[in-house]
Every structure is written in structure tokens, then in C-alpha cells.
Amino acid sequence: MIVVYLVLLVVFAGGLGAILLLRPDTGYVLINYGPWVVETSLAVLVFGVALWFLVVYLVLRLSGFAIRLPTTLREAFDQRRADRARDAFENGLLALFEGNWARAESELIKRASDHHAPHLNYLAAARAAQRQSATDRRDHYLRLAALNRPEHEFATLLSQADLQRKRGEFEATKLTALKLREKDPAHPFAIELLAESYAALGDWAALRKLLIDTAAQGVIATSRRDQLMSRAIRELMQQAIAEAALPTLKSLWEAAGALRDDRDVRRTYARGLARLNADSEAMALIAQALSVDWDAELALLYGDLHANDPISQLATVEQWFSIYGEKAELLQVAGHVCLANRLWGKARSYLEAVIATAPTPKAYLDLARLCADTQQPEEAARHYRLGLELAAGNR
């Protein structure tokens, strides 16, 4: 429109200038064409030609405008819809961040079809729906996200698995994570989701296999990976113990690698050896472990093991006194081993020392047995009673 106004201004200014210049002598123009004769002044002719060009120009502009009008209107409407869709998306995200789940869901789906990236609307709406415990709507939005942008299926599956995990739907999380690994076997979050779902479902063999996989190396934080691997190995050991599968138990220990230094793994293995009557191997394991570091639980287990050479067993316990001092657990173990060797005096000394410092039902039980074996029935009954009271929490 500015161009039109400029043209009009130039034309009228030119015509006015021509009239002023030619006013003393307006000139004479004669045009003869066939039967037609036109007589006029030069100024009028100039003005008329300029006006004719202006009219032609305006007609052409109006024609072009009329032709472009439908497209212009459509573009204007499309832009308005896009602006409203963008505003609704931004308002929905803001409501989501503010914790207004219902409003967020409403804003996000209201104009999703007009948004240039509708799958983002649906993914965000799925999160808002889950916050309202509306899993049916959540799954519906996830399906719409996948349908609208099939090329972004990976992002949709990641969001779906994350939402399923947060909802505690670990079987569904596992299936979704497996789909993700089919597309990208080394994706960190997919591996993490799969590991967490295996742990939650108690699929320890699958979890151990996943953590051994080279694709998982360096993906999960080392501390977290060791924690999960330790749990998987311990649970598989427990299964082997329950099935009385000693070879399986030993193979799990051999394959544990650096985790053989993990206290929980070592304790589980030692208890399994004891449970499956591999006492000599359990004693060797405990002796080696306690030569490096103190472990009260292993020390107590050592005292309960059947030794082919009880004197050597007692010597090992007494050797630990020189390393760790007279710890209550060591005193109890020494008393128990002395009792097994029928060393009544030393056994009584150790067991009474335990009772004086940190009494346990086990110490009372061993002392009661000692009294019974040495023909002291009243003392035996008293220690049985004291042990039961301590075990029941009455002392």
C-alpha cells in the first residue's frame, strides 16, 4: 500500500508540475484516427496519460490481491492456529512444572493437532495423566505420540518405560526396555531401566547376564553396578543353597571376580558352604578372610563349623586374639570351640568373659551345656533360663 501511495503522489505531483510549467502556453494536441478526432491541450494529455497508467497499475494490483486473497487468508488462519497451539503448549508445560496436573493435561491436548510437534504435547500429557493415576489416558497419549511421529518412536518408548518404572509396572518396563535395546543395545538409560526391572522382578540370572554384557560396561555407575551385581550373585547363591547345588554355588563364587572381596557375597558363600556340609572349605575361606580384616559374622560362623582337627581350629581362634584383641565374638567362638574339645576350664573362662561384657543367648546356651556336661544341673538350668530371658528380650 505504501508503494501505491507513493505512485499517486508522484503522478499528481508530476501533473501539477506540468500544468504549472505549461500554463503560459498550454499547447495544442490533435489526434486523428480513422473517423475519430481528439483535440486537447498538452497539459491535459500528459495528465490523462499519467492517470491511465495509474488506473492500469491499480487494476493489476487489485487483481493480484484478489487472486492471492484465499492463500493469504489461509496463511493468516494457519498462523493464528499455530500461535494458539504454541501458547497452549507453553501454558501446558508451565502448568506441568507447577504441579497443576489437570490443567497441564487439558492445555497440552487442547490444540495438540495444530502444534508443529504434536508428539511433544502427547508425551508431556502422558506425564500429567500419570500424576493423576490415569494410566489408561497415559497409555492413550503415548500411542498418539507414536502415531504422530513414528520416526521418534525411540523417544516415545523411553518416556513410556520411565513412566512405567515410576508407576512400579516393572514387567511392562522390562518389555519396553527390551524393545529399546533392540533399537540401540548400548543406550545407557535403556540398560539402566532393564537392570532396575530385572532387580525388581527378582530375575537375578538375567540381571547378572546384563551386567556382564560389555555393552553395559561403563554405562551404569561403578558403585551402582557393583551393588546390583552383588545382589544378583547373593540371590543366585541362595537359590543354589536351597537346591543343595554345591557345584553351582562354587561356580558363582569363582565367577564373582573382584566381588569376592565384598563382605555380603563372602558371607553368603561361607554360610552356603556350611549349609551344604563343606565345612573344611568354609573354614579355609573364613581363616583367609580374617587374616586380612575383621568380620564378626564370619568369626561366629567359624565357631559353629565342624573341624576334623578341633585343636587346630582353637589355635586359629587364639591366633586372632593377637590380631584383634579380646573381642566378644572371639571370646564366644573360643568358648564354643573349647567346649567342643572338652576343655572345660578354658571354655568356662571364655564364656563367662562374654557374659560379663556382651552377653548373648548363644553364650548362655554353651555355658549351660558346659554345666550339664560337668554335672552341675542347677547351674545349667539357671543359664538356660537366663539365655531364654535374653532371647525373649526380658533382660
Task: Characterise this structure.
The protein is about 75% helix and about 5% strand. Strands 1-2 form a two-stranded antiparallel sheet. The N and C termini lie far apart (about 100 Å). The chain is built from 19 helices and 2 strands. It has helices at about 1-20, 40-100, 100-110, 120-130, 135-150, 155-165, 170-185, 190-200, 205-210, 220-240, 245-255, 265-275, 280-290, 295-305, 310-325, 330-340, 345-355, 360-375, 375-390, and strands at about 30-35, 35-40. Strand 1 (about 30-35) and strand 2 form a beta hairpin. The longest helix has about 55 residues, at about 40-100. The radius of gyration is 46 Å and the shape is rod-shaped. It is mainly α. The mean pLDDT is about 85.
Protein traits:
19 helices, 395 residues, single chain, mainly alpha, rod-shaped, two-stranded antiparallel ribbon
Order of helices and strands: HEEHHHHHHHHHHHHHHHHHH
Q: What share of the residues does DSSP label as strand, in percent? A: under 5%
- Overall shape: rod-shaped
Q: What is the structural class?
A: mainly alpha
Largest sheet: 2 strands, antiparallel
Tally of separate helices? 19
Number of strands: 2
Radius of gyration: 46 Å
Question: Taking all residues together, what is the mean pLDDT?
Answer: 85
The span between the termini is 101 Å
Write the layout of secondary structure elements.
Layout: H1 2-22, E1 29-33, E2 36-40, H2 42-98, H3 101-110, H4 118-131, H5 135-148, H6 153-166, H7 170-183, H8 188-201, H9 204-212, H10 222-242, H11 246-255, H12 263-275, H13 279-290, H14 296-304, H15 310-324, H16 328-340, H17 344-357, H18 361-373, H19 377-392
Antiparallel strand pairs: 1-2
Helix pairs in contact: 1-2, 2-3, 2-4, 3-4, 4-5, 5-6, 6-7, 6-8, 7-8, 8-9, 9-10, 10-11, 10-12, 11-12, 12-13, 14-16, 15-16, 16-17, 16-18, 17-18, 18-19
